Amino acid sequence: MTRQALKSSKQRLPRRQAKAAGLLGFAAAVALPIALWHHSMGMLASSFRPTFYYFLTGWTPFGLIALGLLLFVPVVYSIGLSSYAPAYPRRRNVYAGWGSTLYLLGLALASQVAAITHGLTPH
Question: Within 10 Å of residue 110's Cβ, how many Cβ atoms?
């Protein structure tokens, strides 16, 4: 192999910068739903009723967001690790795929729940 082939790509970030960018992105993903829908979450929590329908219709989007973020934890942790490292998750792409799918589905549903709860408040 030539020396040029062994060099790292110019598009790759150094390990420390990649880890910082991943942690910053994860923190933003955690903060986004709280910043956007804290009022809706407060309204849902204030009208608490321990029924199946209440949890299904009101809290499912936020549960999907939380589950998506939970699946992102091993992905963010493994940023910068070699794929041969013992701490590298073997199904990293599965975690990333399911995490992003559940997170985006939760965001879409949470926007609908927020629209419904905003329509129920007195103006």
Answer: 22
Is residue 14 classed as helix, strand or coil in its secondary structure?
Answer: coil
- Could you identify the residue written with the tokens 């070699």? 82
> What is the value of pTM for the model shown?
0.79
Look up residue 30 and give its two tokens: 């955690």
DSSP letters for 36-98: HHHHHHHHHHHT----HHHIIIIIHHHHHHHHHHHHHHHHHHTTT--TTSTTS-TTHHHHHHH
What pLDDT is stored for residue 1 in this prediction?
47
Nearest to 98 by CA among 61, 67, 63: 67
Per-residue pLDDT reduced to its tens digit, 47-105: 777 888 777 877 899 999 999 999 999 999 988 888 888 888 889 899 999 999 999 99
